[in-house]
């Protein structure tokens, strides 16, 4: 009897130790994902304070320089769903690390554009190299979403919020660091520093990821089932919201620097700090909002339409809008306030969208295919908006000016506010977008509020179709 008791105690201690070790591994994994998301989004925003001026010195218009900003997201739009599916076969860790390598090396090469004086060559090479940067960063970003969805099914919104905070911090530090390094060492220095950091992150990420256990999953080849899951009104509405969220978020990147210089004659370093405000407001609010949504899922849609309303107000103040009688009120403090509001509004709109997209899709049998598809689709839709935002902004500013451009673009968040507030009050209690997230494994269905964060790694999978390493 004593031996049996001792055996039971030993088994319980081993199980407790395994769970503790698993939680530590998950914590290190989260650090790795957050760190790389931070660097990835720095590479997207680092050129904002000085690239438009460099393009202008080579006789390129707002529209042309906006293409360099937008092509990053255009590539992300095209390849994110593909990477979501590739991850099932190559392994998520492999996709993650290779993406960092391609993105880092390409970022270093982009710095060499300083030595290209011809306008056509400068524009062409800028776009080509940004495509390679986008391929690498998209691979890593899509892989990180898949890993989050599989490793923490019960804390999905909170951890998406944390990754969004890391991304926002990258957006925030990118322009500030870019402006400072540009002032210190010219065009090449920001890209050499950032590209080197991405390359250095590869061995660090590999060590933090550690030796991942083999996971056996169902790979569904039923493309009809996937298409059917996307053919419903909720999915279409959420997808439009995601595109509009990212369009709003990226809209001012290529046009704000010239506006600030024309009104206030600010240095690249100060311009970088001004860009910091929007991302800082986003970074400070995203984790809190993710935490709230995980515990009060009924707030997802109210957060969404409230965020669109705040974004509309921020655009009208930034213009400043003739509709508000502020057309001649060009004050720096009003500009700064509008950028802070834009960050808060963007946080309210972006954070709930991943879970809303997950809920809007018809359930698949295998957990991993579903999350990989959702991660790819979400990244694809977000990237589409990030491409459209800068391109539309540059085109409109060249044709109708900064103020009128923001007046008219404010119609987008106003329209989304009206659509989602109407949907919220017209939805029934049992609408998929109002129900709690349920994450399925082979043994049971885990409800969002009650699932243990270690369950997806500790549970044995009973199915066997395809083996991957995550």
TrEMBL record:
Domain Major facilitator superfamily (MFS) profile: 29-431
Record SUPFAM superfamilies: MFS general substrate transporter
GO cellular component: membrane
Signal peptide: none
Compartments (UniProt record): Membrane
Topology within the bilayer: Multi-pass membrane protein
Principal subcellular localization: membrane
Keywords in alphabetical order: Membrane, Transmembrane, Transmembrane helix, Transport
Pfam families named in the record: MFS_1
A GO molecular-function descriptor: transmembrane transporter activity
Residues passing through the membrane, by range: 26-51, 63-82, 94-113, 119-148, 155-174, 180-209, 230-252, 264-289, 301-319, 331-359, 371-394, 406-425
Matching InterPro entries: MFS, MFS_dom, MFS_trans_sf, MFS_Vesicular_Transporter
Protein's UniProt name: DgyrCDS3908
Organism whose genome encodes this protein: Dimorphilus gyrociliatus
